[in-house]
C-alpha cells in the first residue's frame, strides 16, 4: 500500500468534524426539546418529527464525512445522497409545521414539488451508484417491503377483528420511515458500510 492510501485526515480536520457532529446533535436535541412539548403533539406527528430529525442529522453527518474522510476513499454519491436525505426530512417536517405559516394547499403543493425533486435525485443516485451501493439500495428496499408488508398484514388482521384501533396514514408513514431506516442500517452493515 502506498503512503497516500494510508493518509488520515489531520487532527484539526477530525476535531472540526467532531465539533460539527456535536453541534448538529445539540441543535437537533434542542429543537426536539423546545419545539415538541411532546405531550401537545399527536403521536404520529412526534414519530414523523423524530424520523425527519434522523434524516436531517444523517444528511449533516454525511456532509461532515465528505470533508473529513481521507481523499483516497471513494466519494460515492455523497451530494445526491445528502440531497435525498434532506428532502425526505423536509417533506416530513412540512405537514407538521407548514400549516402554521401557509395554507394547506400551499404546504401540500410544496410537499409534491419536493417529492418530485427527491424522486429525480433518487434516480440520479441510482444511475451514479457503483454496484455495491446499488446492491445495498436494492436490499434495503426488499427488506423494508417485506417487513412493512408483514407488519401491515398482522395489523390489518388485528384491526379487522377489533383488537386494535385504526392508524392514520400519517402515522403509518412514520412507521414506514422508521422501518426503512432500520433496514438501511442492516443492509449497509451486511456489506460492511456501516462502520
Automatic annotation (TrEMBL):
Keyword DNA-binding: no
Keyword Protein biosynthesis: no
Keywords, sorted A to Z: Membrane, Transmembrane, Transmembrane helix
Taxonomy, superkingdom: Bacteria
InterPro entries membership: MFS_trans_sf
Segments traversing the membrane: 49-68, 80-101, 107-126, 138-158, 170-189
The protein's name: Intracellular septation protein A
Organism for this UniProt entry: Brevundimonas vitisensis
Taxonomic lineage from the root: Bacteria, Pseudomonadati, Pseudomonadota, Alphaproteobacteria, Caulobacterales
